Amino acid sequence: MRTFNEADLISLFSALRWTVVLVALALACGGPLALLLALMRSSRLAPLRWLAAGVLQLVQGVPLLGLLMFFYFGMPVFLGIEVPSLVAVGVAFTAYTAVFLGEIWRGGIEAVKQTQWEAAACLGLTRWQQFRYVVGPQAFRMALPPTVGFLVQLIKNTSLASVVGFVELARAGQMASAATFQPLLVYSVVAAIYFTLCLPLTVWSRKLEARLNGAR
Amino acid sequence: MTLNFSQLWRYDDLLLHGALLTLLLTVIAAVAGTLIGVCGAVLVRGGPRPVRWAIRGYIEVIRNTPALIQLFIIFFVLPSLGLRLPPFEAAAVALSIYFGAYAIEIIRAGLDAIPRAQLEAGECLGLTRWQVFRHIVFLPALRTIYPSFTSQFVLLLLGTSLASQVSAEELFHTGGFIDSRTFRSFEVYAVVCAIYFALVMAFKLVFAGLQRLMFRWPVRR
Amino acid sequence: MALVEIRDVHKSFGDVEVLKGITLDVEKGDIVTIIGRSGSGKSTLLRCINALETINGGEIRIEGERIAADMPNLRQLRQRVGIVFQAFNLFPHLTVERNITLAPVLTGKIAKDKARDLARDVLARVGLAEKIDAWPEQLSGGQQQRVAIARCLAMSPHLMLFDEVTSALDPELVGEVLKVMEDMARQGMTMILVTHEMGFARTVATKLVFMHQGRVWEQGKPAELFADPRTPELRNFISSVK
């Protein structure tokens, strides 16, 4: 048994890298999927809408912890090979991000008036061009505050990856706590790190939101 | 690899028990958290300044740190305050505090959305403040917060799975136990997820039904 | 004793003095119309009479009783003074019937089983008997405003205040509301109105009050004031609204 020291602090911060990697991975892979889901949900083809709605209900209907276990234990079952835990965890967070961001962005798209699609269509733009140049930019403005808000959720929730042994900030905290028997101190430090990461984003999201409401 | 669910059926009563504990944990945290939410929202709108700051601080801390870490801290903090609670109870406390922070924000927004003119109209008819709240503010405010409140409730239901990480007995913990007996990890967690999914769907149906029952007046769009 | 006595009333919002010493009497049965440019303090005066705003100086008495926002029997007073707002302010989650009967039942003015009769009664007076089970959002603006009037009538007030009640209405809906108010005037209701409807001010009102810069600039019989305004401000105002 030993007391919490700088070495522990350093190990916490080096584990923080993996938290950041996980967030980046989830956004990089989940973001495009989210856009796809959002577009499917505002599509004119009913089967596409249903499919997207079904995926959404499914992923939002199970705990993130369950999603992690599902992919962690499921990928070897389906692929027949062991995968590094980063892959399994990354897939789970990708699915999580795709669904929640997709829902937020759909809200943004729907907040843009239908007449904007029509006006763009009347100018002879294709459906994609209508989105790319007319509806998308407006939807982006509307959806930015909740998107930043979701980023906070994502950062916090990467702590769940610790459950399958992936060493990010929360897991490093658990290990330091076990080594030092100072759980209160260690977890307070861990919480403080998350807090410093998340609070500016929360404040930013709130400011964006206020600006959006003021502009209306 | 092949899937094999057959071993799991022996544990059906354990799973049922776990699901009931998950429901219990959810309901306790939801009720306690809503109480925190109501008191907090009222105080944050009209309380003395130090109280308002304290509540704002509470909300920011809870909303900007992971629930898992909060759970650990509370699990280890309570004994040092002389409160030796079993894991389930400790998890209930942590989840109530967690849900309360979100509930304050939701309820505050609902109260803010009531037009002042509605309060004035009630006052001008000679109603007491309580009558104005009960008959004029309550239902429209409830309708405003209903979507965000119910989806927060669903997130809470799913979030109770975190309690398994401090060995509180609930559905996810039960899954871990069965996993350790059968070594059919994937199958076990697939079934556990399916049960959560069923619970979520059941609640969504109930919420939709209640919504139709309670909010029958038309609104301008 | 006048029904409403207003004595040297002052009211400020921050640094801005909106009412600069208003004195005015309203007798039982009077139909008082307050006119004036926006910002002249008309609506504020009306809101002071119902203690929706706290006055900074002077006093207001209704039936001899001094009005204050912190008076103990404010609620009893408000049951005797009805107010109709520009924006109707119906309760969206209650049917027309419940909008009307909520206050009479809660304040013990009427038994629950008599409530529907009361609603039917006052709705008939505003010509909307058939809308008793409708939701507010299903009605036109004019109909909503008539329900708001009926809601006041159900409290059998001794005095009714109207705060620009036709200003939010489409032009074609103004007439139906004015007609209801004319009927009430004919039945002897004491009324104070802030309005831009000069026709109503000219033909129905028993007293005309012209407010300007927070003061009662001129008051008197409508016909006389319209025919022969004494001040250039009133003359300008009359010609600008024609």
TrEMBL record, chain A:
Look up keyword 4Fe-4S and say if it applies. Answer: no
Return the InterPro entries for the record. Answer: AA_ABC_transptr_permease_3TM, ArtM/GltK/GlnP/TcyL/YhdX-like, MetI-like, MetI-like_sf
Q: Please, which domain of life does this record's source organism belong to?
A: Bacteria
UniProt keyword rRNA processing, yes or no: no
What GO molecular-function term can you cite, just one? transmembrane transporter activity
Q: How does it sit in the membrane?
A: Multi-pass membrane protein
Q: Which GO terms describe its cellular component?
A: ATP-binding cassette (ABC) transporter complex
Q: Which CDD domains does the protein's record reference?
A: TM_PBP2
- Record-linked Pfam families: BPD_transp_1
One GO BP on record is: amino acid transport
Principal localization? membrane
Which PROSITE patterns would you find in this protein's record?
ABC_TM1, PROKAR_LIPOPROTEIN
Domain called ABC transmembrane type-1: residue spans = 12-205
Which keywords does UniProt give here?
A: Cell membrane, Membrane, Transmembrane, Transmembrane helix, Transport
Q: Where are the transmembrane segments?
A: 15-38, 50-73, 85-105, 184-204
Give its localization: Cell inner membrane; Cell membrane
Q: Which family does it belong to?
A: Belongs to the binding-protein-dependent transport system permease family. HisMQ subfamily.
Q: Which NCBIfam families match?
A: HEQRo_perm_3TM
Q: Per its record, how is this protein called by name?
A: Polar amino acid transport system permease protein
The species this protein belongs to is Chelatococcus caeni
Automatic annotation (TrEMBL), chain B:
Membrane-related topology note:
Multi-pass membrane protein
Q: What does this protein do?
A: Part of the ABC transporter complex GltIJKL involved in glutamate and aspartate uptake. Probably responsible for the translocation of the substrate across the membrane.
Enumerate the GO terms in the molecular function aspect: transmembrane transporter activity
Q: What is its main location?
A: membrane
- Keywords noted in UniProt: Amino-acid transport, Cell membrane, Membrane, Transmembrane, Transmembrane helix, Transport
Family assignment? Belongs to the binding-protein-dependent transport system permease family. HisMQ subfamily.
InterPro entries in alphabetical order: AA_ABC_transptr_permease_3TM, ArtM/GltK/GlnP/TcyL/YhdX-like, MetI-like, MetI-like_sf
User: Keyword Cytoplasm, does the record have it?
Assistant: no
Oligomeric state and partners? The complex is composed of two ATP-binding proteins (GltL), two transmembrane proteins (GltJ and GltK) and a solute-binding protein (GltI).
Location of the protein in the cell:
Cell inner membrane; Cell membrane
Name any Gene Ontology BP term: amino acid transport
Membrane spanning residue stretches: 20-44, 65-85, 91-111, 188-210
Q: What is the protein name for this chain?
A: Glutamate/aspartate import permease protein GltK
Q: Which PROSITE patterns match?
A: ABC_TM1
Stretches assigned to the ABC transmembrane type-1 domain: 19-207
UniProt keyword annotation of Cell membrane present = yes
* GO CC annotations, alphabetized: ATP-binding cassette (ABC) transporter complex
Automatic annotation (TrEMBL), chain C:
Q: Which organism is it from?
A: Chelatococcus caeni
The UniProt entry, under Gene3D superfamilies, shows: P-loop containing nucleotide triphosphate hydrolases
Q: Which Pfam families match?
A: ABC_tran (PF00005)
Q: Name one GO molecular function term.
A: ATP hydrolysis activity
Q: Where in the cell is it found?
A: Cell membrane
Family of this protein: Belongs to the ABC transporter superfamily.
Protein name in UniProt: Polar amino acid transport system ATP-binding protein
Chief location? membrane
Q: How does it sit in the membrane?
A: Peripheral membrane protein
What positions does the domain ABC transporter occupy?
4-238
What cellular-component terms does GO give this entry? Answer: plasma membrane
Keywords on this record?
Amino-acid transport, ATP-binding, Cell membrane, Membrane, Nucleotide-binding, Transport
